[in-house]
Amino acid sequence: MIIRSHLNLIVLLIAWIIIFSLTSSVSGLGTFTHIETNSSSPKPMMWQYGNYIDGTVVLRIINVENISDTGDVVLIRQMLSLRIIYPNGTVSEIDKGLEIQEFNWQITTTSDGINQDPISIFALQRDNLLVRYFKASNTSDITTYEEWGRIIDWYGNLYR
Q1: Res. 34 pLDDT band, cuts 50 70 90
Q2: CA distance 110 to 73
Q3: Which of 58, 66, 87, 114 is at 20 to 30 A from 72, Cα to Cα?
């Protein structure tokens, strides 16, 4: 009986340690607020993100300019807007023109509700992001579309 009560005490102690460690790690979460330096109309929307092993997060922001009558095509501002959120809470804003074909700035919604955005961002090594987009020799013929990419660093410099 004494062994069993010691075993129960050990199990109870381990359970309390686990519960305490989980609640103390969750209690570090909080609210994050950032006020845009260049406010634009309409309000920006968080659209996509990439994250890095050190805790840095890069958000892609879009601004809707027009929505088709059927609602299946959304035209966005022709600007790559990124917000880099560092682990210490500071934010860097990048707004960069990519000089790419206009169809890349259209988000279409398929009949089954899936958004198709020609532009995507992918986290690479620290300080760099890959921006994927498309080039077409004939924008009316989807078979001429080619996938392209550019690297942008966290300072707004573009690389081919």
Answers
A1: confident
A2: 9
A3: 58
